[in-house]
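Quick entry between incubations.
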Amino acid sequence: MRHQRARSYSIRSHLRSSEVALTLLLVLITALAACRPAPPAAPSAGAPLATQAPASHPQVPAGIAALLDQARREGAVSIFVGSGKYPQSDEAKISHAFETYFGFPLKVTLAGLGPHPTVVQRLQTEGRSGIQPPVDIFVSSARLVHLLRQAGLVEPVDWVALGIPVDDVLSPGDATYIFDNIRALIYNTRLLPRDQAPRRFEDLLDPKYGKIVVPAFPTAFPYVGLALGDQQAGLDLMARLAHDGRLAFVPSYTDVPDRVASGEFAVGYSVLANNIGHKDRGAPVENAPLERVAGFVNHGVVLRRAEHPAAAKVFTYFITCTDLGQRAIDQALRWNKHTTRGTESWQVAGDGKGIFPSLDWHLNDEEQIAREYGRVLGL
Amino acid sequence: MTTLTQARPQLSSSSVRLLRDPILVLVGLLVLLATGLMLAQILVLIWTSLRPTTRLQTAELTLANFISILQQPGFHEVFGNTLALGIGSVAVMLAFALPFTWLYTRTNLAHKNLLLTLLTVKIAVPGFLVAMGYIYLLNPSNGIANRLAMDLLGLPSPPFNVYTLAWMAFLQGTALVSPAFFMLTPTFRAIDASLEEVAHTSGVRPLTTLRRIVVPLATPAIIATSIYYFIIAIESFDYAAMLGLPVRIFVFSTWIYRLVYPPFDEPRYGEAAALGILMSLAAIVLTLLYLWSIRQSDRFTVVTGKRSQQRPSRMSRRGQLLAWATISIYAALTLLLPLLLLVWSSLVPYLQVPSAAALADLTLDAYATALYEGIPILANTLAVTILVPTLSVIWAACLAWVMVRTRIPGRRLLDVLVMLAVAIPSIVGALAFLYLGLAVHQVIPLYTTIWLIVLAMSTRYITWANRTIANALLQVHREVEEACAVSGIRRGQAMLLVLMPTVSPALLFSWFWLALLALRELTIPVMLVRPNTQVLATAIWGFNAAGSSNVASAMGVILVTIIGVLVLLFHRLSGEPNI
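Done. Structure below.
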């Protein structure tokens, strides 16, 4: 009994000390949360964004101007950016550019929710249950945007009526032209000098390139066929590489530059070399000087039941039609168009080197062709 | 004249007993809730498996999913890979876990708290980060070990290739050593030391004592642990995904992942559920083996109402050195190397081999980003880390008590249900909760909150804690409760105030161990996470999958540091030199 009393006293004293310790731990965590460090400085790249005084009356179309007050009240917007992860400094960069242009703050969230096809599936599943989408703006290929449209998840915004130029509006009128996605070959500059880098996709058959790292998505490979000018040639090429054990699959597009930069692979196929800023950080990775390359346009749509609908429309206009907005997303996200001189997309796919299929191809042919690649590659 | 007592309705004796014992009522409610969640998971799985794989909203029933899975050309190969992974992992696990457990609980190993700390911190390191470190070390393209071996030994080709089933099994097995250690420790500790003292007095060597006395006594627990972790090994995802997918080595877990997250086309939920059902059927067979071993448990009861002195076996100096050499090799292979590579990759702007040029690029930028991105999600992480083990241990203790200490009809079915919950792969269990959350969202908006993840993980972890607590309860003889009954203590009070304190080491171990697992759990949160319910593990995974390996590694280092602090705190709070 005496031992039990002593033990209970010991337990009580331990509980007291445990309460103190846990309280201190919680206080420490709360203090850490309250005293967040300053956003890390991102490496500067490109021309500095405009630093003019906030514009109280920016020159915007009447339709957009009518949304400004509501957007100001909403105060925030989120945009889907694929599987990439971007630091808060990139968000701040875009937010600052927006405030410079429109004269009021807007908190921008870059939502890296995962690979595009996976996120579309998730949105469809959640949409059927009436769940509000986790982002306001969805940016992706025509095929995936079309899937969302068919599921009734796209807000039927009439961008032309809002004043956006027709050239920047994509069929059927509820999507805008945001940036280009080039399906490029990249290589490690320490393992391969530039004159040894592949210039055509057929060059990949040369065993000197070793294993080629590629994303495990069949939808990545029809662009090989487009670049070759013949889908059957693309299928034969990929089948041959797969048969020879020359392909290494990774779970995301943005994993490819990382693996090439580390030197694990000499050559990779997916996104441009600086897609997530590897070149900006000094990584030895570069785009292969391909004679022909293919890519696709990324569409921006506002999702139905978005939390910030007005802000989403104003922001979409900002990154579609204003020079400041386009430079902001180029510097922060490396989103740019092959028609804009000086950008990475232009360097790889500009001046006629790039092949961009039609909307009809995306909606009617892409899926079937991708399935064929999937079958050939065992995906 | 009618009295008031005669006018009142008569209650049955069992109802009266129940009302007088509110603790029993509470236990019953908790058991019902836990059972409901586990059953719901299984029912959703069955329901999903019988629907057309991409049209779950229809009323059509079909067996096409099962046929499709069984007729897949690579089914037999995947089956063989999965079996090899499971057997290999358990073999590696036991090779380390048994001697470590014995050394910690039954010997006078010097500095044994260091062993405990090492094993605890090992749990903290997420599997995919360990795999990433080994890819960095042993990949056939430019792995550091390969390059060193080729440079120093003049080898024409790289001697190591981490992208093999053997390495998957080895790393998976070493990852299971820590949880197996925590599951076996209460059993080993509860074994009466007098048997070993007799052996020592008779001149029997410690290893012989281990082989011929301790291990046989702990056989039910060892068999149960092996069965349990075989199921865990074959459904585990991290190593199979990191090391198998790049070279197209599939096991069932990665196949299920591919069905739920296909690179193309719609998710094939029905086929994923069908595959989960098939895996569950295999687990039922294993469950029968487990139940058989449990029935033999009475022969191994060695903890009675009498307290006995615990005197550890004495090891020679040579034995101490050998033990620590083994522990050091294990720590180097499974903890030190991956952590060093984690730290390295967190300090460089992009993954690169250590070199003079790389040293010039060292920077703390990744830590700044990691702290800024990670601190806002600490609240979610804290909620998961505290709520999940608390709920799991409470449910598991109630279930274990019902299964092991009562004669309630159907308790064996409860045992089967708990084991079946293990048989459901984590990824498929999470899928079931995904559907549950979507189905009840209009009524109970759990889907967009952290509670969906908490409930899914708690349900999953019930079985982890249940095995540990049940094994510990098995070692307590019934005369303890008989003494309470004779003393007039109600059954609920006896359970709460006598029995549970007796097995409090198992409860504490379970809580702490589950807190660590919850902190690093990836498979369930990654299926259920939304932008506002991110936890540290999903943030690390997201950054790694996105190619930001430096930020992922920095977050991993931070996570391991938090775990280390928690471990030290636990050591201080326990107030004992050894746990």
